[in-house]
């Protein structure tokens, strides 16, 4: 293909996206579009898969059967979300094995929030309320993104996500209306999850290298700073209802802007965690890689069994 | 050994009276496992009453590059549509 032809194809492509047309797997797309989507969708899938680990930690110790079935269902949803997203990603021409390899070797990233420990039951409340709350803010605009398989997967994810946040808030509410020690647990969980949740919405716009291109491809409809502000504005009144204090002395309603002003985020901490030095990075990867390796014989056995059955069926037919 | 599970396309009928619709895909060792996995991955909230699974490699798809010759001929065949035919306003039930 000549350079002029390529440029022409690119222009038609950009025009289609500008017209809100969807791009489907077999359509021509610029290599950069494909790569960017593989990166973002796989990162998203990996986050769902690794995201099961901090919560899996509490399934056997949930305080009641009601809490246990809810948590189990939530973790199962996350596995499902990971699978929707992996298969959407595979339509771009990368195999599941390559995707896993990228996660296991550390080449691909996942959301840094899952590298924090879940030390008390209240963390299950805070994770549902804040982490899933921030995730929803990030994800809702993606239901409208330009790549068809990703948009369809996101619609399914978003439908299921709302229960996750509500069950988290209910846990927080129960603790806040309980004994003083229980309320303290809730406050402690908020103290530890607040700042990492704000970081979850990504680096500030000035630092975010992909924002401009991603906005054009509708991989992003709002900037990180806009999403973060939206998250803060909607979460502060919820904390008030719980009677909890957000751990930010600079947090203050700004009558003029109609938004909350908030304090400085510790971006050094964010980058440390992203680079692998968070409190649980190693633990998470060991658990994930261990599960994959220890499951090898099961996958192999299933494959041998399937092949044996196929051979039997053929020989019967003859 | 390390032989990877093939990819399957999943079609779900959400209720009787509706057609099966493509829901997504997943990996499974065989058709039976694909059905079981599809139940867990795509119908956790009563989204379906029937599931079809088809191995992805068995699907033949048209190529969007040929969309012109495949689909454009229909564009100028307006006479296939009822509105192409002019009838007097007094005519009822037509």
Topology:
The complex is a heterodimer of chains A (318) and B (94).
Chain A (H helix, E strand, L loop, with lengths): L2 H16 L12 H29 L5 H26 L5 H9 L17 H18 L8 H29 L3 H21 L10 H6 L7 H19 L9 E3 L4 E3 L5 H11 L3 H14 L1 H22 L1
Antiparallel strand pairs in A: 1-2
Helix pairs in contact in A: 2-3, 3-6, 5-6, 5-7, 5-9
Chain B lengths: L6 E7 L6 E8 L3 H12 L7 E6 L11 H5 L23
Antiparallel strand pairs in B: 1-2, 1-3
DSSP, total strands of chain B: 3
Instruction: Give the rounded overall mean pLDDT of chain B.
Output: 94
Question: What percent of the residues of chain A sit in helical stretches (DSSP H or I)?
Answer: 55-70%
Strand order of the largest sheet of chain A: 1-2
Main sheet summary of chain A: 2 strands, antiparallel
- Return residue spans of chain B where pLDDT drops below 50 for at least 5 consecutive residues: none
The share of residues in extended strands of chain B comes to 15-25%
Q: How far from one another are the termini of chain B?
A: 67 Å
Give, in order, the helices and strands of chain B: EEHEH
Radius of gyration from the alpha-carbon trace of chain A, in angstroms: 22 Å
- Label the overall shape of chain B: elongated
Q: List the total number of helices of chain A.
A: 12
Main β-sheet, spatial strand arrangement of chain B? 2-1-3
Keywords (chain A): Oxidoreductase
EC number (chain A): 1.14.13.149
Protein name (chain A): 1,2-phenylacetyl-CoA epoxidase subunit A
GO molecular function (chain A): phenylacetyl-CoA 1,2-epoxidase activity
